[in-house]
Amino acid sequence: MKIPEILFLCTGNSCRSILAEATFNALAMPALHAGSAGSHPTGYVHPRALALLQREGIRTEGMHSKAWDDLKETPDIVITVCASAAGETCPAYLGPALRAHWGVEDPAKAEGGEVEIQAAFDITYRILRHRIEAMLRLPVAELLGKDPSTLRRELERIGALEPQPA
């Protein structure tokens, strides 16, 4: 059975998709792998995203902002993490991948003081981690090969999940 390649996609690839990639790879079995990219990458990973991952014990070595044009593998599953409900343009990956949307507000655009901005990053991380944990309970590779429509429905259902209170 082919190991599915999962891509977390947003516009800048500096926060949300980076958080999702690192968290997924930290929690997943070695047989699963995720990457991330942006349609218009910022060229840097937000320092708060890196600090949050490190605080959570998740490796950050090699994390960098990259364009979807730079992908070495064609993804089997693309999960967009932009917040289209907030008027943000969500990139449309045009390859032959199964697609799902897990909209999350961009913590890099959070306003306020130190406490409010850090809270925005923490909330984004908790939402993504909760959804990734739910995804990892699915037989992703099996469903992708035998029943992709069920996998798509499940991924969309997961995209609506909110984290449990900390």
Note the topology.
Blueprint: E1 5-10, H1 16-27, E2 33-38, H2 47-55, E3 77-80, E4 98-101, H3 114-136, H4 140-146, H5 148-158
Parallel strand pairs: 1-2, 1-3, 3-4
Structural commentary:
- It is a single chain.
- The chain is α/β, with parallel strands linked by helices and 166 residues long.
- The chain has one domain: Rossmann fold, CATH 3.40.50.2300.
- It is 37% helix and 12% strand.
- The chain is built from 5 helices and 4 strands; from the N terminus they run βαβαββααα.
- It has a 4-stranded parallel β-sheet with strand order 2-1-3-4.
- Helix 1 links the parallel strand 1 and strand 2.
- The longest helix is centred in the C-terminal third of the chain and has 23 residues.
- The chain is globular, with a radius of gyration of 15 Å.
What CATH calls the topology is Rossmann fold
Structural class: alpha/beta
Order of helices and strands: EHEHEEHHH
Tally of helical runs: 5
Could you name the CATH class?
Alpha Beta
Outline: globular
CATH architecture: 3-Layer(aba) Sandwich
Instruction: Look at the structure and give the mean pLDDT.
Output: 90
Give me the Rg, rounded. Answer: 15 Å
**Domain unit count:** 1
CATH superfamily: Response regulator
Task: Give the helix proportion (percent range).
Answer: 25-40%
Strand content: 5-15%
The side-by-side strand order for the widest beta sheet comes to 2-1-3-4
Terminus-to-terminus distance? 37 Å
Number of beta-strand segments: 4
Low-confidence stretches: none
Please summarize the sheet with the most strands: 4 strands, parallel
